[in-house]
Amino acid sequence: MKKVVVIVGPTASGKTALSVQIAKQINAEIINGDSVQVYQGLNIGSAKITDREKEGVKHHLLDIRHPSELYTVYDFQKDARALIETIERPMIVGGTGLYIQAALYDYEFEDEMAKKPSFLEQHQDLSNQELYDKLLQLDPNIKIDVHNRRRLLRALEMALSGILRSDKKRKDIPLYDLCILYLDVDRKYLEERLHVRLDQQLAQGFLDEVKQLSDQNIVLNMIGYREIHQYLIGAIDEETMKRQIIKKTKLLAKRQKTWFKNQMRVHLLNITDPNLEEQALNIVEQFYKEESS
Question: What does pTM read for this prediction?
Fold first, then answer.
């Protein structure tokens, strides 16, 4: 199996800096695993790596879409897997758990773009329970959240075309030989880092970045971009803006930690350890010495 190194962790945990140092040592190329950094112009708010910070390490899947374009987990899965096959030593770095998991494990995603407007129109007056009852007639073995209307509609559309969702089993089977490093951080220490980072981002021109997007009629529902837009239009004051960004980012970090520790087998590393880089490099080098499973 192809060997893939993965560096994950909550936002502001130092994934970018560590990944560059490890990549330089093992001659790896980095695949971005952050769903925001795929977009052009979203640089400051996403803490996107700069050309100087790359230190010559080749990076992929950065700046590949305009902010007005859709880029789904389905798209990332295809793009990341194609890169993994062509790169001798691929390394995925980021904090978007679903994207990374979709690329590395045997998960199947239906292309949401295939849904026909006519199908939605035909079923718009049906309640979720009515959709579910109709779905059960076609796919009696299905297990699905009745409250998730989008998923109900997709499953019904599939069933009407002869594809039963119950036949599609979700497989938590890795497609590659994986070495996953998770950068852990104490909650209080993380909050301190978030405050420092936000101040740096604002000094670097985060407000101007959001304003330029607004001037193009692009309003993003992403942490930081959403709150700054609210501030720029006068809906909230500056202190409220900062407080909300920190609060939402802390919640995101908590969800990221839960996701990665529960969904993947990881090597847990503390970012405050003075020997962090040495520990990480030792794990990765040992990984490459081992026979692939």
Answer: 0.81
Q: For residues 19 and 30, is the Cβ–Cβ distance under 8 A?
A: yes
The values of phi and psi at residue 157, to 5°, are -60, -40
- Is the pLDDT confidence value at 25 over 80? yes
183, 8 in Cβ contact below 8 A? yes
Q: Tokens for 262, please give them.
A: 């529960």
| pLDDT tens-digit series, residues 90-120 | 999 999 998 999 999 987 665 544 456 778 8
In angstroms, rounded to a whole number, what is the distance separating the alpha carbons of residues 291 and 84? 19
Return d(Cα 252, Cα 234) in angstroms, integer. Answer: 25
Q: Map residue 269 onto helix, strand or coil.
A: strand
Give dist(CA 198, CA 48) in Å, integer.
14
pLDDT score recorded for residue 114: 46
Other Cβ atoms closer than 10 A to 53: 12
Distance CA 224, CA 246 (A): 9
| Interatomic CA distance for residues 113 and 41, integer angstroms | 25
Both tokens of 149, joined, read 């209307």
Helices (H), the chain: 15-26, 51-54, 73-86, 97-104, 117-123, 128-138, 149-160, 187-204, 206-215, 225-232, 238-263, 276-289
Gap between the Cα atoms of 225 and 215, Å rounded = 13
Pairing of strands 3-8, 177-184: parallel
Structural domains of the chain, ranges and CATH numbers in brackets: 3-107+172-289 (3.40.50.300), 112-167 (no CATH)
In the chain the first and final C-alpha atoms are separated, in Å, by 6
Amino acid letter for position 95: G
Task: Quote the DSSP letter at residue 105.
Answer: B
Average pLDDT, the chain: 91
Paired with 29 in beta bridges are: 90
